């Protein structure tokens, strides 16, 4: 199966006329959690989001777009590149053996890339000066050519919430929220990311009960 990376994304809550999430970056919202981590509370038993940390790329009046950063699939970068007919050289920074994340249940047959900003790609959103979100295949073509970003996370699928949905989940103590740390996003081993995100709040996950409130 060929990857469909680069196709238009459909964020829940968006109208058919404006389904590209990157086209909505200028919209405003009362609560803006872009560049924040969403940390699933221990009480969350959802099979998709339980135990996850989500990096929020965009939050506006049309909803929320994020990527799960600590739920690896059994697919590696090498397998992904084989599927999209790109040759990934085994060279420093090529990420050949790195796992692809399960980014969320939306568009889960397509690839999305969180990476450090630098080169310009055809469909890309700069979230901060440390993190960009790209939906077009040219970022992976750059990686194959040895000119791609050195720090990156590739996911299959993304997480999307319609307007007001995430805020409701937070109010029901489904998620903790904290400003994101690019070191956790790009550098820490996957299995350490949940605990590290919790510690940004000064919380030891082992001491957190399922009845705790949200931050």
From TrEMBL:
Gene3D superfamilies: VC0467-like (3.40.1740.10). It holds the Pfam family DUF179. One of its GO terms (cellular component) is cytosol. InterPro entries: AlgH-like (IPR003774). HAMAP family: UPF0301. Belongs to the UPF0301 (AlgH) family. This is UPF0301 protein H3H37_17825. It comes from Rugamonas brunnea. The lineage of its organism: Bacteria, Pseudomonadati, Pseudomonadota, Betaproteobacteria, Burkholderiales.
């Amino acid at each position: 199966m060929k990857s469909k990376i680069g196709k238009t994304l459909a964020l829940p809550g968006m109208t058919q006329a404006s389904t590209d999430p990157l086209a909505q970056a200028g919209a405003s919202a009362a609560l803006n959690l872009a560049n924040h981590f969403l940390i699933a509370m221990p009480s969350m038993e959802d099979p998709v989001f339980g135990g996850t940390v989500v990096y929020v790329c965009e939050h506006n009046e049309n909803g929320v777009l994020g990527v799960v950063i600590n739920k690896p699939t059994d697919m590696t970068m090498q397998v992904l590149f084989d599927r999209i007919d790109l040759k990934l050289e085994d060279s420093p920074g090529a990420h050949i053996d790195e796992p692809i994340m399960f980014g969320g249940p939306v568009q889960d047959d397509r690839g999305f890339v969180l990476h450090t900003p630098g080169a310009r790609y055809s469909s890309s959103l700069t979230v901060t000066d440390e993190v960009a979100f790209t939906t077009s295949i040219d970022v992976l073509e750059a990686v194959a050519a040895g000119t791609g970003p050195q720090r990156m996370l590739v996911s299959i699928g993304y997480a999307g919430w319609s307007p007001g949905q995430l805020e409701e989940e937070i109010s029901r103590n489904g998620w903790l929220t904290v400003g994101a740390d690019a070191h956790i996003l790009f550098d820490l081993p996957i299995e350490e990311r949940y605990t590290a995100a919790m510690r940004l709040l000064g919380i030891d996950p082992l001491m957190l009960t399922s009845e705790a409130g949200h931050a």
